[in-house]
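[step 3/7] fold_predict: job queued, chain A
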Amino acid sequence: MTEDAISAPRRESSLIRLVKGMALIRESWVGMIGLGIIFFWVLVAFFADVLAPFPPNSPGAPMTLPGGPAIDGTSIHWLGTDHLGRDILSRIIYGSRQVLLYAPLATVCAYAVGIPMGLAAGYRRGLTDDVLSFIANVILSFPVLVLYIIIIATIGASGFNIVIAVTFASAPGIMRIVRGLVLDLRNREYVFAAETRGESSWRIMMVEILPNARGPLIVDSCLRLGYVIITIGTLGFLGLGLPPPDPDWGGMITETRTFIPFMPHMAVFPCIAISSLVLGFNLLADGLREVSLRD
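[step 4/7] structure written:
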């Protein structure tokens, strides 16, 4: 069997199976529901300037109940206002921009760090594997939330620092997943063919191995996006999220937590927003896993 005959099926599967997988997602109603939820929030974030009935930080009548009239008498606070009179619906709409910006960015950065580490550890083995695995195990030995709090409290609360904290805490877990996949794929025929052709180690890892490991990584990325969204909300609740007055779903909850017993709408609606977006990514991950099993 020639080298081209060995590598051709692999190249075909890397391209054609990706297209088939994206088409087959339509056959998973779970995945379609998740994709629909995500698409809804993406549209909300993109058209926030049009959809928001009020500026996110504009004060009005404090603690207005859902459906209550605005001060001008012509508008309605559909989800009510918070203790400062800010329209909750508008803040949720603008807050979706923050979540859909920093959560994917942090996840991409974590994968950009974790994937090369996992590839190097799984393919090179030996001392490289021992050192990288030791570093990953040390970081993973800390409770994740405590690690986030330590990092943010040290470098300060901002969107960029949240990305750094998530990358630092999540990359070791991604590294271990990639390492396990590479250990299985490194002995395949197309890898031996690439080594015979004299290709460099990094070309083999990035071109021959990584595309064939994409399935589990895509599913994991959807689940991890949900975890990151929860993390951003948790940090906001702890006062370590985006600095005010930027709308932050977690910050909206912690700002109004003392009013929950008699004005629960101020915290319930941001909680629903967080839960729905996390649910969307989890359902999409389930749909992708279902499609991959059929394939």
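[step 5/7] annotate
DSSP finds twelve helices and two strands in the chain.
Residues 88-124 form the longest helix (37 residues).
exit 0
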